[in-house]
Amino acid sequence: MGGEKEETSSKPAFDVGAASELVGKLRGAFASGKTRSYQWRESQLKGLLKMTEEHEQEIADALHSDLAKPELESYIYEAAMLKNSCRLALKELKRWMVPEKAKTSLTTFPSSAEIVPEPLGVVLIISAWNYPYLLSLDPVVGAIAAGNALVLKPSEIAPATSSLLAKLMGEYLDTSCIRVVEGAVPETTALLEQKWDKIFYTGNGKIGRIIMAAAAKHLTPVALELGGKSPVVVDSGIDLKVSCRRIIAGKWGCNNGQACISPDYVITTREHAPKVVDALKQELEKFYGKNPLESKDLSRIVNSNHFFRLSKLLDDDKVSGKVVHGGEKDQSKLRIAPTLLLDVPRDALIMQEEIFGPLLPILTVDKIEDSFDVINSGMKPLAAYLFTNNKKLREEFVMSVSAGGLVVNDTTVHLAILSLPFGGVGESGIGAYHGKFSFDAFSHKKAVVYRGFMGDAAIRYPPYTKMKLRLLKALITGNFFAIIRAIFGLSKD
Amino acid sequence: MDQRGSESVALDEILSELRQTFRTGRTRPVAWRKAQLRAIIDLVQDNEERIFTALLEDLGKHPVESYRDEVGVVLKSAKQSLSCVEKWMAPKKGHLPLLFFPASGEVLPEPLGTVLIFSSWNFPISLALDPVIGAVAAGNTVVLKPSELAPACSSFLAETLPRYLDNRAVKVVTGGPNLGEQLLEQKWDKIFFTGSPQVGRIVMSAAARHLTPVTLELGGKCPTIVDTLSSTSEIKITVKRIAGGKWGPCSGQACIGIDYLLVEKKFCTMLVDLLMKTIRRFYGEGAKNMKNMCKIINKHQFERLQNLLKDPAVAASIVYGGSVDEERLLIEPTILLDPPLDAEIMTEEIFGPLLPIITLNNIQESIEFINARPKPLAMYVFTKDESFKQQLLQETSSGSVTFNDVMVQFICDSLPFGGVGQSGFGRYHGKYSFDAFSHEKAVMRRGFFPEIEPRYPPWNDFKLKFIRLAYNFDYLGLLLLMLGLKRN
């Protein structure tokens, strides 16, 4: 998974044996019933909230060290969102824990039924490097709210945040039930060999496959928050200035394009493209100045691996001559300027994989409606965006474009709406979370039927007769008159 | 070699056709979905006799059992889906904070695409058609692979489905494990599997290669806890329900069938006595004289069950039954009292007409007993002790729990049907079937106005203040800030 590894000869290696022992301890803690009480869940959620509030500066510093993330981005996208997540869970937890009554029918009369949420047990959360604080703790909020014990494995590619999480969670949370394991491939592999009750992974599709295959050995359910190429369709006849600002905010304003729901590429008509490029250029300059490589309001590229990966996309022959803005790089500072490419061919490298960086290709089509076919011919993305005032186009987009989530006339903001499920489809992932969906992601919804000893229908039991068959048919269809007819032997069959 | 080659070419073509059909959008309008559901109802109603015949042939299933567990289940499910599908398809509004005004948020269900359904042999009609009902209600194209171990039902489905349903959208493929392997090599938008945990692992591993979401309806050892009851009528009803629930559905070859009983020592003798009487009344005595019970599906399973009894310590624990009819693949209802807990009969899912009874000093011990073992698909509890009920609910985990009855959770369409842990994940029945085959797409619509400047760089202190207040949904604070009246 890249990244520099330090010599840790003083610490014993976290191997399969250590992982097994850890899971054993957590299973014991879970079996004690500790994590199931409302009080425990509330206390841990409050702990997370307090931890985030009291260490905001340290968190921003770690994020700055790992990603050169601007302080405001650290605040909005990491600390504030996590705090909101905790607050919502604290506010709603009692309601989420209550069993849901279910309807019963005449067929099982008399009976009552309900659906009881229960924790899955001991869960593993593996998080990503781009929003290393939020993407580690947001799933943790769900796991705790649902009453589970858990192990969090933060990404080693954001090492400052990883060690900060290990330190703070050790101080603020119940370490008999909540643990952090730091490390890279060997530690993750050791963890993946264990039997978990759920694995929640945020990252890329390649590792997602490895995780699901490991989970399959133990029949462990998984949630995979992956990515894809999130397209932005830009129609004409719209407020171009506002649209471009929202595109920029979603692209470069989100960790410099290194976000799973960042606009990956733009599609617009051939005719409209020059206006879009001009508007983007203008707003980019307003946001980041004439020397964006120097701007403090842009994250850097996370490490040299990714820097070279992105450079290769620009060096591809197929895009030579297509750069219409930006393209500057500073390898020593791991910075790449906001770059626009116009009319890149579909088979260029930059269109083959998720960009996850500050390069924005603009594809052109004849008619704006053609853009939907372009999107649907590729893998289903995590998000898709459309800027339009045309109601018909808007509704066609909503009905025909399949993605994890869609936003019309903005980008990325749906992330903050906790009443909407956040997750992918197809290659962009399995499962969803945020708000109550997080609670559900880490719960088993147990169906419970209560029956009494009255109302026993002889027709259920052998010996089987024609009469019983008639009555059974009538009962199953719930047809009152058929039931009467059958009882009185007046049925037609 | 040749056959396999031509089989995989045929599969490629089938998938290609189904994907093309899906792309045309034909399966999405509610009219198409309702037409498929009506077709399933017609299929089952027109062919009831043929279905009874096929089930009799594959499993020796009596028509009443066939109606109750197969035909009736499918009809009920299809009718409910027919009347509810439009409601299920409707988007659900999501609540948006004032900060985002004006905007709308909703969750819109959409079909996943082309889905693969594997069904098992014990309820070969209902476990095939019930998931198909969910898949078409959700607007998908479908490949159904019924179990080859129930060949009469499998051919029935292969022959009739194309005549009733849209055969460019719903296909049946028949074959054995080879076909299963080839199907698993393809990329699907969802795989729905009913069967054993061993094969479940294979399915999920194959799905992992394509990041295909799966639902696994597996099994396990479903325990039945029988608390000591005092009322004679209640004891009689309990015994009837156990006798009917254990051997009635497919001779115990059911994923939610009772696997074993947990009973207090002091209650055991009475229970066993009454159970034996009830068994004789329902099913007759001796394998040669059995009635109202299915046969074991095939020789392999028959031998497996016989082998469970071969262990001398296990054989010594038989208190009733034990006789078999090898020719007709029948095994009489057999009760064992306290077989060794490490014998295979107590470590593997029985899936047959053998009923071990484990005696305890105190019924409370059942909780520890159950928790020491993999989570089952269902747990049944006969008791009048309300606090014991709550304790069981809180301290044990299973797909479902039913108090004072067995099997009935299966026909409650408003309850999710699925496992947890080794008994599987995902769920279906009723709306849950629709959901199992849908993607819930989040959709947010905004306008261009108003514009919130502080969203954008270059960053400064004012913008940071603004955003802090916004994230706290502190609208008054925001107002004051905007009016220049807010102090830190």
TrEMBL record, chain A:
<dbReference type="InterPro" id="IPR016161">
    <property type="entry name" value="Ald_DH/histidinol_DH"/>
</dbReference>
<dbReference type="GO" id="GO:0009414">
    <property type="term" value="P:response to water deprivation"/>
</dbReference>
<dbReference type="InterPro" id="IPR029510">
    <property type="entry name" value="Ald_DH_CS_GLU"/>
</dbReference>
<keyword id="KW-0560">Oxidoreductase</keyword>
<dbReference type="GO" id="GO:0009737">
    <property type="term" value="P:response to abscisic acid"/>
</dbReference>
<keyword id="KW-0520">NAD</keyword>
<dbReference type="InterPro" id="IPR012394">
    <property type="entry name" value="Aldehyde_DH_NAD(P)"/>
</dbReference>
<dbReference type="InterPro" id="IPR016162">
    <property type="entry name" value="Ald_DH_N"/>
</dbReference>
<protein>
    <recommendedName>
        <fullName>Aldehyde dehydrogenase</fullName>
    </recommendedName>
</protein>
<comment type="similarity">
    <text>Belongs to the aldehyde dehydrogenase family.</text>
</comment>
<dbReference type="GO" id="GO:0006081">
    <property type="term" value="P:aldehyde metabolic process"/>
</dbReference>
<dbReference type="GO" id="GO:0004029">
    <property type="term" value="F:aldehyde dehydrogenase (NAD+) activity"/>
</dbReference>
<dbReference type="InterPro" id="IPR015590">
    <property type="entry name" value="Aldehyde_DH_dom"/>
</dbReference>
<dbReference type="GO" id="GO:0005737">
    <property type="term" value="C:cytoplasm"/>
</dbReference>
<dbReference type="InterPro" id="IPR016163">
    <property type="entry name" value="Ald_DH_C"/>
</dbReference>
<dbReference type="Pfam" id="PF00171">
    <property type="entry name" value="Aldedh"/>
</dbReference>
Automatic annotation (TrEMBL), chain B:
<dbReference type="InterPro" id="IPR012394">
    <property type="entry name" value="Aldehyde_DH_NAD(P)"/>
</dbReference>
<dbReference type="InterPro" id="IPR015590">
    <property type="entry name" value="Aldehyde_DH_dom"/>
</dbReference>
<dbReference type="GO" id="GO:0006081">
    <property type="term" value="P:aldehyde metabolic process"/>
</dbReference>
<dbReference type="Pfam" id="PF00171">
    <property type="entry name" value="Aldedh"/>
</dbReference>
<protein>
    <recommendedName>
        <fullName>Aldehyde dehydrogenase</fullName>
    </recommendedName>
</protein>
<keyword id="KW-0560">Oxidoreductase</keyword>
<dbReference type="InterPro" id="IPR016163">
    <property type="entry name" value="Ald_DH_C"/>
</dbReference>
<comment type="similarity">
    <text>Belongs to the aldehyde dehydrogenase family.</text>
</comment>
<dbReference type="GO" id="GO:0005737">
    <property type="term" value="C:cytoplasm"/>
</dbReference>
<feature type="active site">
    <location>
        <position position="255"/>
    </location>
</feature>
<dbReference type="GO" id="GO:0004029">
    <property type="term" value="F:aldehyde dehydrogenase (NAD+) activity"/>
</dbReference>
<feature type="domain" description="Aldehyde dehydrogenase">
    <location>
        <begin position="10"/>
        <end position="443"/>
    </location>
</feature>
<keyword id="KW-0520">NAD</keyword>
<dbReference type="InterPro" id="IPR016162">
    <property type="entry name" value="Ald_DH_N"/>
</dbReference>
<dbReference type="InterPro" id="IPR016161">
    <property type="entry name" value="Ald_DH/histidinol_DH"/>
</dbReference>
<dbReference type="GO" id="GO:0009414">
    <property type="term" value="P:response to water deprivation"/>
</dbReference>
<dbReference type="GO" id="GO:0009737">
    <property type="term" value="P:response to abscisic acid"/>
</dbReference>
<feature type="active site">
    <location>
        <position position="217"/>
    </location>
</feature>
